[in-house]
Write a structure and sequence with these properties.
Residues 29-309 form the D-isomer specific 2-hydroxyacid dehydrogenase catalytic domain. The protein is α/β, with parallel strands linked by helices. The protein is 33% helix and 16% strand. The protein folds into 2 domains: 4-102 and 288-307, 3-Layer(aba) Sandwich (Rossmann fold), CATH 3.40.50.720; 106-280, Rossmann fold. The longest helix has 19 residues, at 289-307. The model has no long low-confidence stretch (mean pLDDT 97). It binds nicotinamide-adenine-dinucleotide and 3-phosphoglyceric acid.
């Protein structure tokens, strides 16, 4: 019998029929989970005992889930880059091989970050909304040329974001404890939050971990140059939304563009919704058909390697 592989990441599930041949060629049976939702720990505990492999989405891949439901599991792959929802150590303790698919979304997420920078600087989304409603607004924007941008996390997404910002004529500073210069990118390394009071744009492209959770907080808001634009395409809890709200209220922050939030989907009662100059995404920064195909096939290959013995 072929090893059975549970897939619980919605982007891959939405194109699931496309991967039938890939699963067959890999000698695996691909089994779709629920395309509409992130599964809870209890739902995973009920589901997992039927599977040898798990391609994980944003579900809580926790110690409790493995303890109660992971007895048959022999391999796991986190679809995508972010691993903040996965307890890697818990898998390793049980001898279950696990990997993510690093380095796969740099261009796609950087395209969204760059789109946000343009959208914020020129109020593109507000103008669109108001024209549709019958208006003809003329907000004065800011030029990007010669503006200073800080990028937090100079990895795959951060470097591609820097490339785009440099193409707009911006000066780029990168905050990354493991900064490595890229020969064709003129980027200055800095230690967070050095020079924060000089920035016009601040973009988060780092992982969520104990060091980055809440790194954009009240103290940072009190230091920024008035009128800062903030972009987050990384993970929601890196920004304390209460601090961002305070900054938007006072004008310290001109506007923010967020693909990710502390709670997803963004709660209807979130005060952030009241700021018309802000731009909101739906944690969709990596979601292009091309990227989903590429990453899903990579995930299947990793799974086949793990399960071949
Ligand atoms: N919006 C989306 O849909 C989307 C898509 C893909 C990834 N992401 C998020 O973006 C993150 C980054 O992805 P990537 O592919 O660039 O990863 P990456 O590993 O290539 O780069 C991350 C960089 O952040 C740096 N970093 C780590 N801790 C830091 C800290 N305390 N301060 C500053 N920098 C720090 C690392 O040294 C590394 O260079 C992922 O972990 C994921 O959470 C979001
Ligand atoms: O971390 C990632 O790679 C992206 O956010 C997309 O993956 P996700 O759907 O698991 O968040």
């Amino acid at each position: 019998m072929k090893p059975r592989v549970l897939v619980t990441c919605p982007p891959m599930l939405r194109l699931f029929e496309e991967f039938g041949d890939d699963f067959d060629a890999a000698g695996l049976e691909g089994c779709p989970g629920d395309v509409t939702q992130v599964l809870s720990e209890d739902e995973l505990i009920d589901l997992l005992p039927g599977y040898d492999g798990w391609i994980i989405g944003d579900d809580p891949a926790s110690e409790r889930v493995l303890d109660a439901g992971g007895s048959r599991l022999r391999a796991a792959v986190k679809w995508g880059v972010g691993v903040d929802n996965v307890d890697f150590a818990a898998f390793e303790r049980r001898g279950i091989p696990i990997t993510n698919t690093p380095g796969v979304f740099g261009r796609e997420v950087a395209d969204v970050a760059a789109g946000y920078v343009l959208g914020l600087a020129r109020s593109l989304y507000r103008i669109d909304r108001e024209v549709r409603a019958g208006g003809w607004p003329k907000p004065a924007g800011v030029s990007l040329w010669n503006k200073r941008c800080g990028i937090v996390g100079f990895g795959d997404i951060g470097r591609e974001t820097a490339r785009r910002c440099l193409a707009f004529g911006m000066e780029v500073i990168a905050y990354d404890p493991a900064f490595v210069a890229v020969p064709d990118l003129e980027v200055r390394a800095a230690v967070w939050p050095e020079a924060i009071e000089t920035l016009d744009f601040l973009i988060f492209t780092c992982p969520l971990n104990v060091h980055t959770a809440g790194m954009f907080n009240d103290k940072i808001v009190d230091r920024v140059k008035r009128g800062l634009f903030v972009v987050n395409v990384a993970r929601g809890p890196i920004i304390r939304e209460q601090a961002l709200h305070r900054g938007l209220q006072s004008g310290a922050i001109a506007a923010a563009a967020l693909d990710v939030f502390e709670t997803e989907p963004l709660p209807t009662e979130s005060p952030l919704r009241t700021y018309g100059d802000c731009i909101f995404g739906s944690h969709n920064g990596s979601n292009t058909v091309d990227a989903v195909r590429r990453v899903s096939r990579t995930a299947i290959k990793h799974m086949a390697e793990f399960l071949k013995n």
